[in-house]
Amino acid sequence: MDIRPTSDRLRETLFNVLTAGNPDALAGSTWVDLYAGTGAVGIEALSRGAAKVYFVEVSAAAIQVIHENLKSLKITSGVEVIQSDAGKALGRLRSDKASPDFIFLDPPYRLEDAYRDTLNRIAEVSWLRTSTIVIAEHVKKFDPGESFDSLARFRTLHQGDASLSFYRVAKEP
């Protein structure tokens, strides 16, 4: 499996940034965890008050790990595990009328094109709102890009060899 879970330290930093000054900032939120791997980011979102997380992963072995992690933590509601590539999943979420507050993507670092392709697809979805925050975890030496159609990066955070790029809609899609 090509899984590289988000480090505990980077995950903690991510959620501290998102909840800065408001520990209830994630309460009732909806997340899409693309390239979910072990599901660690989505599970953390649930632990911090998210109401719904869509875990999207193409690997059957990783899907099994996500199910095992959810079961071991006794998480039975507010989750949907989708075995699909990111592009197809984004289309499915459109038909499900999902309207996420946060989209997290963390493709394998070596798949640099996957970042651009996925961010371009996210920028094209009709259900993306101006309040939606898209976060891409990537290796520090790689820049996934400043903008993708309606999406524009508004912050980059570096920690060790990893970085988080934060995007939001700069103009209505």
Give a structural overview:
The chain has one domain (27-169): 3-Layer(aba) Sandwich (Rossmann fold). The protein contains five helices and eight strands; from the N terminus they run αβαβαβαβαββββ. The protein has helices spanning 8-18, 40-47, 60-72, 86-95, 112-124, and strands at 30-34, 52-57, 79-83, 102-105, 133-139, 147-148, 151-159, 162-169. The chain has an eight-stranded mixed β-sheet with strand order 3-2-1-4-5-8-7-6. The N and C termini lie far apart (35 Å). The relative contact order is 0.16. The model has no long low-confidence stretch (mean pLDDT 90).
Sequence-ordered SSE layout with sheet pairings:
Layout: H1 8-18, E1 30-34, H2 40-47, E2 52-57, H3 60-72, E3 79-83, H4 86-95, E4 102-105, H5 112-124, E5 133-139, E6 147-148, E7 151-159, E8 162-169
Parallel strand pairs: 1-2, 1-4, 2-3, 4-5
Antiparallel strand pairs: 5-8, 6-7, 7-8
Task: Summarize this structure briefly.
This protein has a single domain, classed as Vaccinia Virus protein VP39 (Rossmann fold), CATH 3.40.50.
Which terms would index this structure?
alpha/beta, single chain, Rossmann fold, about 170 residues, eight-stranded mixed sheet
Rg estimate, integer Å? 15 Å
Q: Classify the secondary structure makeup into a structural class.
A: alpha/beta
CATH top level label = Alpha Beta
Bin the strand percentage: 25-35%
Roughly what is the average pLDDT, rounded to an integer? 90
Total DSSP E strands: 8
Return the CATH topology: Rossmann fold
The main pleated sheet reads as: 8 strands, mixed
- The residue fraction in helices comes out at 25-40%
Name the CATH superfamily classification. Vaccinia Virus protein VP39
Low-pLDDT runs of 5+ residues are none
